[in-house]
Amino acid sequence: MNPLAYTPRACKPEGVFSLPGISCKLYIVRSARNAQTPTPSREVLAAALETEFAAWGTNPADHALGFAIIHFADDGWYLLLSRWNDANNLRHRVREIRFNDDGIVATPLADPWIVSCVWELRVMMFEADAWIDAVLRPGPETVTEQAAQRYLSTFCEGNI
């Protein structure tokens, strides 16, 4: 079990990944214990994101925009995938990850009810605000290319 203490963690954007059916912002969050854990190559990251987003399928109300978080936490390593749906919904999936010679292996959490930890929620709140500012406030009837670019151009970065 984790201690009941809050210490800020580093959050670094890895940019936008243009995958089949979705453009996804990726963040790396690290605990102090994992500050030196190497970030996988962009190719390895893209392959893992593509596989995981494709595995969960699509919904007719899904937008081709989302974000993902890789969290090198003290109690394990995690991949969180989020995709915007309808006007204001977020479809979400959490995986535990490990690395092997083939790249990133993602598996369901032992507790399927866990949604996020407090550090990941900080990124999710930033992303909710970015969605509101880029898409909902301007109020286009659909997610225009201009709205998508506004959304994809904002990133959470620093200590969270």
What is the N-to-C order of secondary-structure elements (H for helix, E for strand)?
EEHEEEEHHE
Continuous helix count: 3
Mass-distribution shape: globular
Q: Which spans of ≥5 residues are poorly predicted at pLDDT below 50?
A: none
Describe what this molecule looks like in 3D.
By secondary structure, the protein is α+β, with helices and mostly antiparallel strands. 26% of the residues lie in helices and 38% in strands. The chain has helices spanning 42-56, 118-136, 145-152; strands at residues 10-19, 22-30, 62-73, 76-85, 89-100, 103-108, 158-159. It has a seven-stranded mixed β-sheet with strand order 6-5-4-3-2-1-7, with helices on both faces. Helix 2 runs antiparallel to helix 3. The chain is globular.
